[in-house]
C-alpha cells in the first residue's frame, strides 16, 4: 500500500541494477528537512499493522522510504 495513496494495493517491489524501487508510488517533492519530516509523518498515519498466524501478540509491518536527492 502506498501510504500517500491508501487505495493502492499490491504494489510491486523490484530490484534492478542494485536499486530497489516500488512501481507507481506517489512522489512528493520537498525543499527542506521540515517538509520531509511532515510528509513522512503524514504517511505514517496510514500505516497498518496486523497480527500474524504464528503469534497473535506480534505484528508485521514493512516500510520502504525512497529518497531521491537532486
List keywords for this structure.
single chain, 70 residues, alpha+beta, two-stranded antiparallel sheet, 1 helix, 4 strands, 24% strand
Condensed summary:
The protein contains 1 helix and 4 strands, in the order ββαββ. It is α+β, with helices and mostly antiparallel strands and 70 residues long. The two termini are 26 Å apart.
Folded structure, characterized:
The model has no long low-confidence stretch (mean pLDDT 78). The protein has a two-stranded antiparallel ribbon with strand order 1-2. A two-stranded antiparallel sheet has the order 3-4. The chain is globular. The chain has one helix spanning 33-44; strands at 13-16, 19-22, 50-52, 55-60. The protein is 17% helix and 24% strand. It contains one helix and four strands, in the order ββαββ. It is an alpha+beta fold and 70 residues long.
Number of helices: 1
Shape: globular
Distance between the termini: 26 Å
**Content of β-strand:** 15-25%
What's the arrangement of secondary structure elements?
Blueprint: E1 13-16, E2 19-22, H1 33-44, E3 50-52, E4 55-60
Antiparallel strand pairs: 1-2, 3-4
Amino acid at each position: 500500500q502506498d501510504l500517500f495513496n491508501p487505495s493502492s494495493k499490491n504494489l510491486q517491489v523490484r530490484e534492478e541494477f542494485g536499486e530497489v524501487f516500488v512501481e507507481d508510488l506517489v512522489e512528493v517533492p520537498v525543499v527542506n528537512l521540515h517538509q520531509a519530516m511532515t510528509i513522512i509523518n503524514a504517511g505514517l498515519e496510514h500505516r497498518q499493522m496486523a497480527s500474524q498466524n504464528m503469534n497473535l501478540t506480534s505484528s508485521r509491518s514493512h516500510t520502504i522510504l525512497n529518497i531521491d536527492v537532486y
